[in-house]
Here is the input.
Amino acid sequence: MAEALVQVKSEMGGDAVILHTRTYQRRRWLGLRRVEVVEITAGNGLNVPRGARPRPRPTAQPPAQLQPIGASRVSGQGTLAALAASRVSMRDDIPSSVENSRQFLETPAVNTAVMLNLTQEMTALKSMVNDLVTQSRMTQAPNVPEDLFDYYLQMVQSQVAAEIASDVLKTLRNNHRPDQLKNKQFVHEKITEQLEKMLPVSGPIVRKKTVGPHVVALIGPTGVGKTTTIAKLAANLKLRENRTVGLITIDTFRIAAVDQLKKYADILDIPLRVVSSPDELREAVEAMGDREFILIDTAGRSPSDTLKLQELRNFITVAGPDEVHLVLSSTASQECIESAITRFGQVRVDKILFTKLDEAVHVGVVLNVARKVNKALSYVTTGQDVPDDIEVGKGRRLAQLILSGGNI
Ligand SMILES: Nc1nc2c(ncn2[C@@H]2O[C@H](COP(=O)(O)OP(=O)(O)OP(=O)(O)O)[C@@H](O)[C@H]2O)c(=O)[nH]1
Ligand SMILES: [Mg+2]
Here is the structure.
């Protein structure tokens, strides 16, 4: 009845008058099921006189919906299909009940019935949605404690591998009391600590020897930011740490690329040598023997270009650097990054360096990759500004980025 009244109100407006109501059973499904039908006869937009005044035709319903139903004094009936089995018909007779009925829809009892009905439906919907969410969570991650699921989602959205995320939460659940896990700040801190411990980091470039230069080479796919990162490292070593630095570039086939590093070398007043063969590289390293640090830039190589990778390997072997950093863009997919690590592994990779964290949508990839290939993260870069946008790789910083969805 409440549903039908809601329908009367929505179809015919608050001015509708209830003329008659009736409830009856109807058989459905081959007579096996009984359906309760509520029928309300209501009229609207009518000013029916008591007496013999000519009756106006109803105007509220379009003619197509009007069907005569029997008696001559009946002008029409609108059959409404919604809300399952309720049916509303409109009649403009029975004038004596019109005034009473008109007010009936506005009575507190009807309004309460309508509200009650809506509340019940909302509650049913809410519990249905909750059930669905729980169900899909359980299928997605059966081992994740329900109360910590939001943290799981956050990590997975940052592309932390699902098994890492669920391990973190299981450890958390096993080591802390339920009341501690209700404290959001506590949980946040504990997850941060765990993620922090998971990331292997190398710390900054440090020269341990007392004689001869500490030689560092940066290799990696095209356009990831090797040259920009070399400039940042050189500037920080020279300007912040007061070190003597030399630059070498093996960028042989693109003049523009040499120009790029030359500009930085000029600004920083650091010597730059451009080499085009392994022999020239050996000579250049020897010639810069008085420097504390030598940074070697290389031309980007496509990880699929085996010949170029072989050539690069020859250069690196001859230079014999103290460390080779594989530069990777954190905007690339994990698959792409892993393939680059495998291919550049044939050259030599000691550490990994992630650029463009400012543009990364999925910082969790950095954690997955570092763990999977068991290479320490040396630096991350966070923008195009030389020399500021570079940081020593730190697990805590990365963990915070993962939990904040990558906001630098
Ligand atoms: N947003 C952002 N851009 C960066 C970052 N590092 C480098 N870039 C930009 O990436 C582009 C390519 O940088 P390069 O340093 O020339 O890259 P590369 O690896 O030397 O390129 P190739 O020598 O051609 O292989 C430039 O526009 C840089 O400004 C970073 O951390 N964040
Ligand atoms: Mg370059």
Observations:
- Residues 48-94 have pLDDT under 50 and may be disordered.
- Residues 108-140 form the longest helix (33 residues).
- The pocket of magnesium ion (ligand 2) is lined by residues 226-227, 257 (CB under 6 Å).
